[in-house]
Write a structure and sequence with these properties.
heterodimer, A: two-stranded antiparallel ribbon, 7 helices, 5% strand, B: mainly alpha, rod-shaped
Chain lengths: 253, 177
């Protein structure tokens, strides 16, 4: 059976410069399959919205889908962050669209950029650094109130503050691992079941029955993975909104 | 390609993906992915936030405004139509009242004319009746006066026949009175 992990192997497509960075080692700027997937996702988003962003009062199909996705994120930002949500909408939407397109691309092409921990962790860190940046920009040093919820007897702070700090620091990790794990797991399972189809197909009549079961499983799992691809992008956007809301409305925290 | 990646793997990390480790944990590939991701995300963010998303939200807002405007227009037109309908109903009512008045007038006039004509005819008839009555009275009186002369003559004739003598007119008149 083919190695189910092979699909996640980074391969260089167009060799690029290797830049030595002190303290970090060498950064290879080659266009790899992962970079190509990200470039393709971004390009598709731009092309899609270039076609979908029309002024038609009665929208066509593309425009309807484009406005639906926009309306989805708009609704999220408005309902979670509230009135200030509009300001962060482009950031949340870019994240959502980027993750969604990378996830869906993995359903059609051979490589899923969001199954790379480097990618999801960077996205997670980007979210949390944006949250910290917005927090400081909006609240100044009061940002640290985030770690000390009001209305608690002061001795509890010795316990509460470390927990709050830890839970804040762990946010990018959970963001990254959730997306990474879902994509990794889904694609590994798909690959393994698809491998079963081939392996059992060569074992005669009984093998064919097994292969059929495996094939049906792959079909069902593919449907599931499409849902997961959308859902994980959605969850990423929701959590980004929730974390942004924490620092935007720090006073009510 | 593959050989090149394997070459770098050997220097920094676990031997290679065939050994079962996650390919995602080959850290020599992280730097490039992170740099490219940041770059791509930044460009995508700028293109979306400055160029495409305002167009999308503009289209959505425009549609909302158009729908609201159309609804307001429709409501205005409906109000106008209602006012016109009310005016039309008032006009119809007025016309009907006028028509009824005209009809009543005509009827009254006709009634008056009929009464007048009838009265005139009655007067003519009454006149004729009176004239007839008068002529009857005169005829009767005349006849009555004739009756006296006839009686006088008859009485004279009877007296002459019975007595052989003619009675004078005065005697006859006195006898018949």
């Amino acid at each position: 059976m083919a190695d189910p992990m092979h699909q996640f192997q980074i391969q260089t497509l167009v060799p690029g410069p290797k830049v030595p960075v002190p303290g970090l080692g060498v950064i290879d700027l080659s266009i790899t399959n992962s970079v190509a997937a990200m470039l393709l996702a971004a390009t598709l988003i731009v092309v899609f919205y270039a076609l979908a962003a029309k002024k038609a009062v009665v929208p066509g199909r593309l425009q309807t889908i484009g406005e639906m996705l926009y309306g989805l994120v708009d609704g999220l930002a408005a309902s979670i962050i509230g009135h200030d949500g509009k300001k962060y909408l482009p950031f949340v939407f870019t994240l959502f669209a980027f993750v969604l397109f990378m996830n869906l691309q993995g359903m059609f092409l051979v490589f899923t950029a969001t199954s790379q921990l480097a990618v999801t962790l960077t996205l997670g860190l980007m979210v949390i650094l944006t949250v910290v940046g917005v927090g400081f920009a909006k609240n100044g040093l009061k940002f640290f109130k985030l770690f000390a919820p009001s209305g608690v007897p002061w001795p509890l702070y010795f316990l509460l503050v470390p927990i709050e700090i830890l839970s804040f620091l762990i946010r990018p990790v959970t963001l990254a691992l959730r997306l990474f794990g879902n994509m990794l797991g889904g694609h590994v399972v798909l690959k393994i079941f698809a491998g079963f189809v081939v392996a059992l197909g060569g074992l005669g009549l009984l093998g064919w029955a097994g292969a059929l079961v495996a094939l049906l499983s792959v079909t069902a799992l593919t449907a599931l993975e499409f849902m997961v691809a959308f859902l994980q992008a959605f969850v990423f956007a929701v959590l980004t909104c929730v974390y942004l809301n924490d620092v935007v409305h720090l006073d009510s925290h | 390609m593959a050989t090149e990646t394997h070459g770098t793997v050997a220097t920094t990390e676990a031997p290679g993906h065939e050994s079962g480790g996650l390919p995602q944990l080959q850290f020599q590939h992280w730097g490039g992915q992170i740099v490219w991701l940041l770059l791509i995300f930044a460009v995508l963010y700028v293109v979306l936030s400055k160029g495409l998303l305002p167009r999308v939200s503009g289209a959505i807002d425009e549609r909302g405004a158009k729908i609201a405007g159309d609804i307001a227009d429709a409501r205005r037109l409906k109000d106008e139509a209602e006012v016109q309908a009310r005016a039309a109903a008032a006009e119809v009512a007025e016309a009907r009242a006028k028509a009824q008045k005209t009809a009543a007038d005509a009827k009254a006039k006709a009634t008056a004319q009929a009464a007048e004509r009838q009265a005139k005819e009655e007067a003519v008839l009454a006149e004729k009746l009176a004239a007839a009555e008068a002529s009857i009275t005169t005829a009767r009186d005349e006849a009555m006066s004739h009756v006296r002369t006839v009686a006088e003559e008859t009485a004279g004739a009877i007296v002459e026949k019975l007595t052989g003598k003619t009675a004078s007119a005065a005697e006859l008149k006195a006898a018949l009175a």
